[in-house]
C-alpha cells in the first residue's frame, strides 16, 4: 500500500512540475523504478527517482531517433523530386 501511495504522490508531483518531467516515459520509469526499489530493499522513492531519470533519458533518445528518421525520409523525398525534375539526357 505504501508503494502505491508513493508512486501516486510521485506521479502527481511530476505532473505538476512541468512539461519536461511530466512525460509518460518519466511516469512509467518512476512507477517501475519505485516498485523495483521497494522490492530491492525498501528504497521505493530512490528507485522512482532513478526510474524517472532513466525513462526521461530513454524518451529523449527515442524522440531524437524519430526526428533523425523523419529528416532522412524528407531528404530522400527531396532527392527523388529533384531527380524526377531533371530532363533525360539526349543521345
Q: Kindly state the mean pLDDT as a whole number?
A: 80
Write down how many β-strands occur, each being a DSSP E stretch of 2 or more residues: 0
Order of helices and strands: HHH
Helix coverage percent: over 70%
Q: How does the helix and strand content classify structurally? A: mainly alpha
Q: Which descriptor suits the 3D outline?
A: rod-shaped
What's the helix count? 3
Supply Rg.
Answer: 22 Å
Ends apart, CA distance between termini: 81 Å
Percent in strands:
under 5%
What multimeric state do the chains show? single chain
Show unreliable segments: none
Report the major sheet: none
Give a concise summary.
The protein is built from three helices and no strands.
Give a structural overview:
The chain is mainly alpha-helical. The protein is built from three helices and no strands. The radius of gyration is 22 Å and the shape is rod-shaped. The model has no long low-confidence stretch (mean pLDDT 80).
SSE map:
Elements: H1 2-17, H2 24-41, H3 44-85
Helix pairs in contact: 1-2, 2-3
Q: What key phrases describe this protein's structure?
A:
91 residues, 0% strand, 84% helix
Amino acid at each position: 500500500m505504501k508503494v502505491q501511495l508513493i508512486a501516486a504522490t510521485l506521479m502527481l508531483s511530476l505532473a505538476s512540475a512541468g512539461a519536461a518531467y511530466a512525460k509518460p516515459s518519466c511516469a512509467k520509469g518512476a512507477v517501475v523504478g519505485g516498485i523495483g526499489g521497494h522490492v530491492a530493499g525498501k528504497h521505493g522513492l530512490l528507485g522512482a527517482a532513478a526510474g524517472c531519470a532513466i525513462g526521461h533519458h530513454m524518451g529523449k533518445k527515442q524522440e531524437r531517433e524519430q526526428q533523425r528518421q523523419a529528416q532522412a525520409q524528407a531528404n530522400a523525398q527531396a532527392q527523388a523530386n529533384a531527380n524526377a525534375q531533371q530532363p533525360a539526357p539526349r543521345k
